Amino acid sequence: MSAIVVRPSGPLEGTIAVSGAKNSVLKLLAATVLAPGRYHLRNVPDIADVAWMSELLTAMGMRTNRPAPGELVVDAPEDLLPEAPYELVEKMRASIVVLGPLVARFGRARVSLPGGDDFGSRPIDMHLSALSALGATIELAHGFIEARATVLRGARIGLDFPSVGATENAMMAAVLAKGTTVIDNAAREPEIVDLATFLNRMGAQVRGAGSSRLEIDGVDALSPVEHTLIPDRIEAATYLAAVGIAGGELTIAGARPDHMDMLVHKLGQMGMRISPCNEGLWAMASRRLTSVDISTLPYPGLATDYKPLLVAMSTVADSVAIVTENIFSGRFRYVDELVRMGADVRTDGHHVVVRGKEWLSGAPVRAHDIRAGAALAVAGLRAQGETVVADAHHIDRGYERFVEKLRGVGADIERKDDR
Ligand code: UD1
Questions:
Q1: For residue 261, what are the domain limits?
Q2: Is the CB–ligand 1 distance for residue 301 below 6 Å?
Q3: Whole-model pTM above 0.85?
């Protein structure tokens, strides 16, 4: 097991380069089951989730390799085993997005049902009803989803909620369906646009990505492509949180300010100065931040994945913040860990009330998921003494060289591997 040790730091100064988006690459890798041949992806982060997704592709019969840093080559044969085993889906629920492309290409798929996680129960009903609308027969038995279709036919799909995963599964199934599919109330995240761009490069006909209505004309076949991933806006937000908490001035190279409008606006209200620059995003925090209320919403609203970071920032800001979670029912375990660091945070239903303090107090804490782990580590930048974040492997799922990048801008942070 490994831990990350953080001591009070700041001001931070310098440049951090942001890696490619985790939530994009996982879906692009799922999309490679749609056509045989060689894919070449660039700006691929070196993170555990990519390794697991590559393992899943390998289990189906594909080959993956990383010829150079940031590059990933996938070789997809004509025939694949259209199955996602329990061991891999259980580790990473995002693997559910292979369901749509597998059934579209092979007419059948057998994918383990993902379990719950720290975010709450996380149902997949919308994924399944979208695939049923396209003509797939779905059965749940022995912990697996069995989907079959002789032919998928374009249909009108109205999502009850703009679910990212359901939009992606439906989109990847519809690209090979007969006729036109319309997905209403589709998710609009930049990662959805990246997937649509990738699919269109492969020969798909997807219109409207980035809006809440997607129109997809099915095509007979697709072909493999090269693609450079968009940057990870949540990773960029993590470094913005770090400089907000520790103070200083950072350039976040490669960040896309246009993907982070609402966050940049919020952090501006909290007292940070942030502006686009040639390299990406420039940010400065020259005084203690001021709390503001925060409410998570589907894109272009404030992402739920930013929330642990914003709560961490609020624990050391001046005044009181009310943070409202509108996407997931759970996702509060990190609050108890922040309380162990002396933070004044209370949860009430889907609200969190944070009363800011000048300083936190370093403590042993535990990372329960990727973003919670990162939030605890950046909170440690303003915690007297030493903060030890256990279960740092959660952070490795979504962050490439997390410790090294923060050390590079002056953070007092190190990794302790307990072998
Ligand atoms: C993705 C992201 C995750 C992010 C989330 C919301 C990946 C790998 N993960 O997760 O980091 O926090 O979007 O931006 O891209 N829901 C249902 N039924 C369904 C599907 C979803 O009720 O069939 C609910 C969920 O429980 C949740 C809400 O819809 O309350 C949004 O979930 P969704 O957008 O699907 O999240 P993910 O795609 O799982």
A1: 2-19+231-417
A2: no
A3: yes
